[in-house]
Amino acid sequence: MNAPATATPEKEPFSWGREIRQWIWLILIVLGIHSFIAKPFYIPSESMMANLLVGDRLIVSKFPYGFSYLSPSLPVLPKIEGRLFGSMPERGDIIVVKSPSDGADWIKRVIGLPGDMVAVRNGQLYLNGVAVPRQPASDTMVPVTPNTGCPMLSMVVADAAGQPLCRYPTWRETLPNGRSFDTLDIATTELDDFPERRVPEHHLFLMGDNRDNSKDSRVPAELGGLGFVPYENIVGRAEFTTFSLDGTQTLNPLTWPGALRGDRAFNSLR
Q1: Which residues are known catalytic residues?
Q2: pTM for the complete prediction?
Q3: CA 100 to centroid of chain Cα atoms
Q4: What is the pLDDT of residues 139-181, one digit of tens each?
Q5: What residues contact residue 254 under an 8 Å CB cut-off, 6+ apart?
Q6: CB-CB neighbours of 260 under 10 Å
């Protein structure tokens, strides 16, 4: 006896409405993750050397300090003071903020919290009248690539393979909470002096680790720097690098593997 034939389910007809709804849901999910959980970030300048290089890609978490009107990826909210579920960063945290001068995302290190007295004298950082311990460290050796040049010819050396390196004088700083990190200080510049000022309430004082090449809180926002950064302008906390490119890549995919800096992948920034 023959088994009854199984009916083949009828294929659902194509629907533009259904396709559009699926794309809308996908976009909303991506925007939600990007706005409230984490977002990628690209290092475009040398202001955070020796710890971050041009071409580094990293992940910024959006929730550690709460959320503000600037948290959504799209500028859909009016200016609102304060943060929802807010908490202050710790000294030494590397954070991304919306620059008061141009509205772009900038990455710097937290140095001063509200109420702190901050000063810089001859390149020496002072917090609440006390010099932040600063010890000479081993020179930072950075390969010379299209992404990272060398500010002085006298700083160029060669590695064992004859490839050019830039040798940066490096200092190890230790903040009052015990957080230590390397900073670069190459020459005497106008950024080596900042008159003592108190960090206003609900603001932060930020600095780049490359002390000679960072328009940070030492430079007023009206002159293209950060000035004291409002608490609401925090975007998130830098967590770890994902990968890094040295700038030798082109549109040809065959050049991409050679441009990867393998030693800079998945490095913690905490």
Answers
A1: 47, 108
A2: 0.89
A3: 16
A4: 999 999 999 889 888 899 998 888 999 999 999 999 999 999 9
A5: none
A6: 16
Q: How far apart are CA 124 and CA 121, in angstroms?
A: 5
Check pLDDT > 70 for residue 9.
no
Residue 198 CB partners (closer than 8 Å, separation 6+):
115, 116, 117, 118
* Architecture of the domain made up of 21-133+186-263: Ribbon (2.10)
Q: Which two tokens stand for residue 236?
A: 């998130």
Tokens (6 digits) for 200? 């206003």
Which residue in this structure is represented by tokens 């992948």?
265
Provide the strand spans (E) within the chain.
38-42, 56-61, 94-98, 105-112, 117-121, 124-127, 130-131, 134-143, 156-158, 164-174, 180-184, 194-198, 203-207, 229-230, 234-244
CA distance 233 to 5: 66
What is the chain's Cα-based Rg?
24
**Dist CA 47 CA 33 (whole Å):** 28
Amino acid identity for residue 162 in this structure: G
Three-state helix/strand/coil letters over 75-126: CCCCCCCCCECCCCCCCCCEEEEECCCCCCEEEEEEEECCCCEEEEECCEEE
263 token code pair? 């030693």
